[in-house]
Specification:
By secondary structure, the chain is of the alpha+beta class. Helix content is 47%, strand content 14%. The protein contains 13 helices and 10 strands. A hairpin with a 4-residue loop joins strand 2 and strand 3. It is elongated. It starts with a helix and ends in a 5-residue tail after the last helix. The N terminus is likely disordered.
Length: 410
C-alpha cells in the first residue's frame, strides 16, 4: 500500500506539472482573505537514506477558493536512464510539483513520518505573491532544477521564494553554535552507522569548515527552527514570522540499528587479517594470503576509485580535497589483480613498501590532517598496512632463503 501510494502521488505530481503549462492562459487565481501559507517539515524517516535528512514543503490553503496545495521541490525519478551515474556525478535533476494536501498527509501517515506545520504571518499581498511564485515554479519550463545537496535543495528553494516575496527583512532565530556541514550531516545519519561511515569516506576537508546559520538551512529541521521565533523587520513595523506551529503527525520510533557497526566490522576484519597473516607467514599458506590480499585490496581500490571520481569528476560539493584517498587509492584495483603474477613480484614488493610507509605516516599524522576522520577507519587502515608489511617480510624471507641456497665458492 505504501509503495502504491508513493507512486500514485509521484505521477499525480507529474500530471499537475503537465497541466500547469495549459493553465498559463487561464485567469490568475486570486486568494481570499482566509488563505494561509505554511511550511511543512517532515521529520527524518529511517527506511530510505534520502529521507534521513527530513523534507520541506510549502502548503497554500484557501478554503474559500477550494485550494489546498502542497508544493514539493523534492521530486526525482529514480527510474530515469543512467540515474545512478548522474547521482554519483552530482548531476541529478529534481522537479517541483503541487498536489492536494490530503494525499500528501495520507502518504506521511502511512509511512509513519512526523510532520510539523508553521503558518506564516503574511499580508494578503505577500500570500498572493508567494502563491503566484510557487505556481510559476511548477510550469513546464521552470519545474526542473539541478539539485545540489548543500546549496540548492528542497529546503533552500522554498526559503528563497518566501524571502523574495516578503516586504521587509526576515530576522531568523540564530543557532548560536559553531558547526560544519559534516556535523549537521552526522546528526541526521547517526541512526544508521554504515551510512554515516560511507558519508565520512566520501566528503572531504571542505565539509569541516565552520558554516553560517544561513548555510545550515539546507537541512529542513534547521530551517524550521530558524523560523521559530523569527521576525519580519519592515520600514516601521516589526511582526512575528509565524502565527502558529502545530505538530500534525508524530513520528514513529526508528527501528533497531544493524548490530555490527563499522568499528566492530573493522575490528573483525583486523582479527581476520592477523590470522591470515599468521598462517600465510608461519604456516606458509601463500595461496591463502594472496587470495585474501586480492579481495582486500580490490575492495579498497573500488572505494578509492569512487573517492577519486567524486574528487575530480563530480559536481558534488565538499568532496575535494579528501585525505581518505591516501589509504583508499584507485591504484589498488590494478595491484590487486597482479598479486599472482610472479614476474611482477619485485614491483609488488615496492608497492607494498610504499603503501606501508604511506599508511604508517597517515596514522602517525592522524591529528594533524586537516579533515575530520572517523575513528572507525583505523582498523581498516591497520588491516591494509598489516598485509603490506607482511608481504614485505614474506618477500625478504624468501629472498634470504634463496641466497642461502646458492652454492658458495672459496
Amino acid at each position: 500500500m505504501r509503495k502504491l501510494l508513493i507512486v500514485f502521488i509521484f505521477f499525480m505530481g507529474i500530471a499537475q506539472l503537465a497541466n500547469s503549462q495549459n493553465n498559463i492562459s487561464q485567469p490568475q487565481i486570486i486568494l481570499s482573505d482566509s488563505a494561509q501559507v505554511s511550511l511543512l517539515t517532515n521529520a527524518p524517516w529511517d527506511e530510505a537514506v534520502y529521507s534521513l535528512f527530513g523534507h520541506t514543503s510549502v502548503r497554500v490553503n484557501d478554503p474559500a477558493q477550494n485550494i489546498d496545495y502542497v508544493f514539493n521541490f523534492g521530486i526525482f525519478n529514480i527510474n530515469k536512464k543512467n540515474f545512478i551515474l548522474l547521482f554519483i556525478k552530482g548531476e541529478t535533476d529534481y522537479m517541483v510539483a503541487n498536489f492536494p494536501y490530503r494525499y500528501y498527509i495520507e502518504e506521511q501517515q502511512e509511512r509513519g513520518v512526523g510532520v510539523v506545520e508553521q503558518i506564516f504571518n503574511l499580508t494578503q499581498e505577500e500570500k498572493q505573491n508567494m502563491f503566484d511564485a510557487f505556481m510559476t515554479n511548477t510550469l513546464l519550463e521552470n519545474r526542473v532544477y539541478r539539485y545540489n545537496y548543500f546549496y540548492d535543495n528542497c529546503s533552500t528553494r522554498p526559503r528563497d521564494i518566501i524571502e523574495k516575496n516578503i516586504k521587509g527583512n526576515i530576522k531568523y532565530t540564530p543557532t548560536n553554535k559553531e558547526q560544519t556541514y559534516r556535523d549537521l550531516v552526522k546528526e541526521c545519519v547517526r541512526v544508521q552507522p554504515w551510512v554515516e561511515f560511507g558519508i565520512d569516506l566520501v566528503i572531504g576537508a571542505e565539509a569541516d569548515k565552520t558554516i553560517t546559520d544561513r548555510q545550515k538551512d539546507f537541512l529542513p529541521e534547521y530551517l524550521m527552527n530558524a523560523y521559530q521565533g523569527a521576525t519580519i523587520q519592515g520600514d516601521s513595523i516589526q511582526r512575528n514570522m509565524l502565527i502558529s506551529t502545530t505538530t500534525i503527525l508524530k513520528p514513529t520510533p526508528f527501528k533497531d540499528k544493524f548490530p555490527i557497526t563499522p568499528l566492530y566490522g573493522g575490528l573483525i576484519l583486523l582479527i581476520i587479517t592477523i590470522l591470515v597473516s599468521y598462517f600465510s607467514y608461519k604456516k606458509r599458506w601463500f595461496a591463502l594470503g594472496k587470495t585474501f590480499d586480492t579481495l582486500l585490496f580490490f575492495v579498497a581500490g573500488i572505494s578509492g576509485f569512487i573517492i577519486f571520481f567524486l574528487m575530480y569528476f563530480s559536481e558534488h560539493p565538499c568532496t575535494n580535497p579528501n585525505w581518505n584517498i591516501v589509504w583508499l587509492n584507485p591504484l589498488q584495483i590494478i595491484v590487486a589483480l597482479l598479486f599472482f603474477v610472479k614476474s611482477l613480484s619485485k614491483c609488488i614488493y615496492y608497492y607494498h613498501f610504499i603503501n606501508f610507509v604511506a599508511l604508517l605516516a597517515f596514522l602517525l599524522a592522524w591529528c594533524l590532517i586537516p579533515q575530520q576522520l572517523d575513528i572507525a577507519f583505523i582498523p581498516y587502515i591497520l588491516s591494509l598496512g598489516l598485509r603490506s608489511g607482511m608481504n614485505i617480510m614474506q618477500q625478504r624471507k624468501t629472498k634470504r632463503k634463496a641466497d642461502y641456497s646458492l652454492p658458495r665458492t672459496r
